[in-house]
Design a protein that fits this description.
Number of helices: 9
Bound molecules: glycine
Helix content: 25-40%
Number of strands: 13
Shape: globular
Order of helices and strands: HEHHEEHEHHEEEEHHHEEEEE
Strand order of the largest sheet: 4-3-2-6-5-1-11-12
Largest sheet: 8 strands, mixed
Oligomer: single chain
Strand content: 15-25%
Radius of gyration: 19 Å
Structural class: alpha+beta
Length: 348
Amino acid sequence: MLHTAVSRRDFLKTSTLAGASTILTGSRVPPTRIAGPVAIASGNGLGAVARAVEEINGGADALDAVISGVNLVEEDPNDTSVGYGGLPNAEGVVELDSAVMHGPTGRAGAVASLQGIKYPSKVARLVLQRTDHVLLVAEGAQRFARMHGFQIEDLLTERARESWVRWRENLSNRDDYLPPHGPDDRDLGEALRRNEDHWGTIHCSAIDLNGHISSVTTTSGLAFKIPGRVGDSPIIGAGLYCDNEVGAAGSTGRGEANLENCCSFLIVERMRMGDSPEAACLYACQRIAEHTHLARLQNEAGQPSFNVSFYALNKAGEVGGARIRGRGRMAVADANGARHIRMAYLYE
Ligand code: GLY
């Protein structure tokens, strides 16, 4: 049975560790009340946050609730950035990445380059629950999923296949291989000139009725990617991070920029230092902008020409998000229902 029960032994262990950590940093004030239920997600996760809060109100652990929430998007053939219906790699094969993190135990699980399994987030949870590891990839991840009863399915929908055929037929310089180049070379092709769907992903984090926090990120990754390419989503500290005493953060957008800056971990650490969720997310956007040195990744104004979005909540139930470029919205659900809220941004 899939469940995320926290044993009394684990609970006592994490409580003790949390106490020690509070003494070391000296900066955390324990919340006086439990903030849950609260769930946040990327803009494509309105249904996910609604379902997560509904399940939490029914007694679910935050991890099970957020996974159940994103399953709605993983199985949706119309979302071409996640799970079934996701846009395939350069060879027409759908490869999925996902990670989960469970605050009360501090455990994480992840899968990358997983083919043929519609719900990579469920497999990531099994890595957490049924292995002594954190990340399984490719064939090993698929074998592990089959061992636990998952069926192999063809995840390439007709719509995604047609998009892939169009891409193949118009390849020219629109792939992700780069010739030798220097830091000032700008015109290397159109790899980055993609619409945001091509880095689409869903992140969801929540606080449950016990005040415990958990997170999930799941994606089909960059559309038409070089086979085997792994983005930020399944990497703990990049695509998501969760500290049960502080809060959680997750991302969507250009995974390479996030991988190079470990932003979800950075955001949680900024919240630990007292930043609001929104301020911490903006800080991560700023960090990426400052570290974007290559001309091919910049616009004429020297700003990042790509986008990354971050979503965060803290232990008190405050939520916020920020993007590098342009207005955007994220999904939130709590006792007042599910809705979209605006995100902050660095550049118009
Ligand atoms: N952020 C999703 C990816 O880059 O794969």
